[in-house]
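FAQ
Q: What does a multi-component entry look like?
A: The components come first, one per line:
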Amino acid sequence: MTLLAFLVVAAPARAQDSSCSRDEAEECCRSAYINDKSRAEIGGRVACCECEGSDSLTMVACSYWGRNLEEGGEIKSDAWPGQAIFESCALKHEQGHIKALDASCDPGAPGHFAPWRPLANPDKFEAREYKLEISCFKDSLKECEALGSKKGDYHALCARNVNHRVQQLEQALSRLKP
Ligand SMILES: [Zn+2]
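Then the predicted structure of the entire assembly, as tokens:
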């Protein structure tokens, strides 16, 4: 999980991976967001999804950066400078949890966030994912350059958002006790 309020109200979902179709994953991430009472500061989470062709629940990585559920509609992936980078790095973080099996859909409910494994030390697994996410943001800085020609100081704002996020994550990492 990534907990941080920054820039935007988080909401529906950019999702991928797993055996779920893009539409199934998108809808599942949206439901999980709506069903979770503590969603206000969620940047990303793992959701438990019912997808065609699978008897069991499938874990799906969800990113909520820059998506406003209240407005209902799909938001362009470049709605603000660096949004696509935030989404992609949040997905890497959540996919890391899925690969490491920190989270589980057993037990779990369809259309809800996956519970964390009860015996795991959250600080330990978040430290690993924060590091992964920090690397992702640092590696993605060059993508801000590609936005340079779009408009005004889009490139500079993107770099500022990305650098700010790296700082936030480094602070969050330093507060963990793995
Ligand atoms: Zn996490």
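Q: Is there any commentary attached?
A: Sometimes. For this entry: DSSP finds four helices and five strands in the chain.
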